[in-house]
Amino acid sequence: MTDDLLRSPLHEKHQALGAKFAAFGGWQMPLEYAGGGVIAEHTAVREAVGVFDVSHLGKATVRGPGAAEFVNRCLANDLDRIGAGQAQYTLCCDDATGGVVDDLIAYRYADDHVFLIPNAANTAEVCRRLAAVAPAGITVTDQHREYAIVAVQGPRSGALLDRLGVPTDHGYMSFVDATVDGHPVVVCRTGYTGEHGYELVIASQYAPPVWDALLAQGADLGVRPAGLAARDTLRTEMGYPLHGQDLSMEISPVQARAGWAVGWKKPEFWGRAKLVAEKEAGPARRLWGLSASGRGIPRPGMAVYVGDTQVGRVTSGTFSPTLKRGIALALLDTAAGLAEDAEVEVDVRGRRSPMTVVKPPFVTPSVK
Amino acid sequence: MIPDDLRYTAEHEWVRPSGGTVRVGITDFAQDSLGDIVFVELPEPGRTVTAGESVGELESTKSVSDLYAPVAGTVTARNEALSDAPDLVNRDPYGEGWMVEIELADPSVVAGLLDAAAYEKITSQG
C-alpha cells in the first residue's frame, strides 16, 4: 500500500528530520518529527513559529475569458466579495444534494485567472466537475504535483519571512508574488492554525531550498518543522472543519456552520436550491463544540448522549495541547434542543465522559 | 537501546524484578509508537491482577492503548507522578516513567518472560 502513496517534493527533507509518516488523501506526509512530537510542534506554532509541508493539498488553475465569473457560478462563496490579489475560503457543493464535495481556497489573480487549492483527496473530482461544465475558452488544469505548499504559521512567522526578504505586511487573505534566493514563490496570508501565518506556493523543484532556508533562518526564533498531527490539533482548537470529518457529501455547510462561506445572495452556485431550502427550514443537526470536563478524550465516531438518548456523534475529537483537555466537534440533533453550556455525555469506550456544549473556537484565534 | 537487565512482554512492557516484586513500564519502542502521552490511568494499589489482563490505559494525542499486567499478583504501588506529568513516559520510559509495582503471585514466572535479545527481535520485525 505504502508504495502507492504519492510523495511530497520535500519527502527527503522529512526523512532527514526523522519524521513519522502517515497517509493523507493518497499522499505519504509527515505526521510529526523526531525531537518534536505533536505537543512541542503545536506549542511552537502557538508561541513562536512552525513550518508545515502541506504539498498534498491540490493545486488547479482555471483560466480563460470570464474564468472568475465561471468559478463564481459553481463554487458557493461569492468571489466578487474579493478583488484581484485576494484569496477566499469557499465550498464546492454537489448541485443535486447540497453536500460538500470539497472545501477549498480560491486565489483571484484576475477576471480570467483563478487558482484553486482543494484538499488532496478531492482535487481530481473538483477539477472534473469544473471541467465538465466549463464554457469554451475556459480551461481547468490540475497541477497537483507541479507545486509544493509550505505553511509558515505562528506569531513569529512574519519575522521569519522578513529574514528571507519576502513581503509580509499584506492583508489577511491576500497574496503577493515574491522570490526566495531567486526562486519564485506566492506568499498568501492564509493558514489553518488560527495563528498569524502565511502559505507559500512554490514550484516543486524549488521547494527544498526554500524549506532549508526557513529552518536555518528561524533557528533563534524557535522555529520547528511541524507535522500534520499538530496541524490537526491546531485546527480543531479553532473549530475549523476538516473535509471528510466535519464537512462531507453527507454534512452540508448549513449543518457545519459554514454558511458564512456561502454567497446566499448569488443567483447561481452548485447546490443553491437545496441549501437555501435547508437554511430556511433549519438544519436537522448542527455542528457544535464539546469541551471535556474530565479526562475523557472524544474521538471521531463516538456517540453523544443526554441521559439514555443519543443526540449526536463526534466528527473530530482530540486532546487540546493548549487547554490540556479533550475537545471535539460534534453534530448534534436540532430536536434535542441543546445550546451553549448544555451538559452532555460522550461514550468513550464504554464509559460516559461529561462534556459541555460550546461554540468554537476553543482557543482565541489571532490570524489577523 | 533495550536495557539488558529487564524482562519484556510482546505487548511492549518491561519488568524489573526486585525480590518478590516487579516494577512495570512500557518500552521506548512503545512510547515512540504512541506519541505524546497525555493521560495515564493506572490500577489502584491492592488490586489483584492476572497476567495479560488490561489494568490501565495510556492515551496519547492520537490514540489509546491498554496497559496489560505482565504477571499475576497484587498491585503494591503506582507512579502517582504520571497523573500530573504523563510525558515522563515519553521522556524516561525505563526510569521516571514507570507505571506500577506488582507483588508476584509466583516469583518463578519472571524467568518465562522475554529477555532483551528476544524482545529486540519482536521490535525489529515491526
From TrEMBL, chain A:
Q: Which residues form the Aminomethyltransferase C-terminal domain?
A: 285-363
The coiled-coil regions, if any, are none
- List the keywords (alphabetical): Aminotransferase, Transferase
Q: Which GO terms describe its molecular function?
A: aminomethyltransferase activity; transaminase activity
- The residue ranges of the GCVT N-terminal domain are 10-266
List residues traversing the bilayer: none
GO terms classed as biological process: glycine decarboxylation via glycine cleavage system
Q: Does the keyword Acyltransferase apply?
A: no
Q: Which residues bind substrate?
A: 199
Q: What Pfam families would the database entry show?
A: GCV_T, GCV_T_C
The GO cellular component terms are: cytosol; glycine cleavage complex
Any keyword Transferase? yes
Chemical reaction(s) catalysed: N(6)-[(R)-S(8)-aminomethyldihydrolipoyl]-L-lysyl-[protein] + (6S)-5,6,7,8-tetrahydrofolate = N(6)-[(R)-dihydrolipoyl]-L-lysyl-[protein] + (6R)-5,10-methylene-5,6,7,8-tetrahydrofolate + NH4(+)
The kind of enzyme this is, by top-level EC class, is: transferase
EC assignment: the record states: 2.1.2.10
Query: Briefly, what is this protein's role?
Result: The glycine cleavage system catalyzes the degradation of glycine.
Query: Could you give the subunit structure recorded for this chain?
Result: The glycine cleavage system is composed of four proteins: P, T, L and H.
Record family assignment: Belongs to the GcvT family.
Q: What is this protein called?
A: Aminomethyltransferase
UniProtKB/TrEMBL annotation, chain B:
Instruction: Name its co-factor(s).
Output: (R)-lipoate
In its UniProt record, which GO terms are filed under biological process?
Answer: glycine decarboxylation via glycine cleavage system; protein lipoylation
Query: Cofactor stoichiometry and binding?
Result: Binds 1 lipoyl cofactor covalently.
Provide the Lipoyl-binding domain boundaries: 21-103
Pfam families in the cross-refs = GCV_H (PF01597)
- What's in the keyword line of the UniProt record? Lipoyl
One Gene Ontology cellular component term attached to this UniProt record is: cytosol
Q: Which InterPro entries match?
A: 2-oxoA_DH_lipoyl-BS, Biotin_lipoyl, GCV_H, GCV_H/Fam206, GCV_H_sub, Single_hybrid_motif
Domain of life, per the record? Bacteria
**Stated role:** The glycine cleavage system catalyzes the degradation of glycine. The H protein shuttles the methylamine group of glycine from the P protein to the T protein.
User: What protein family is recorded?
Assistant: Belongs to the GcvH family.
Q: How does it assemble?
A: The glycine cleavage system is composed of four proteins: P, T, L and H.
* Name used for this protein in its record: Glycine cleavage system H protein
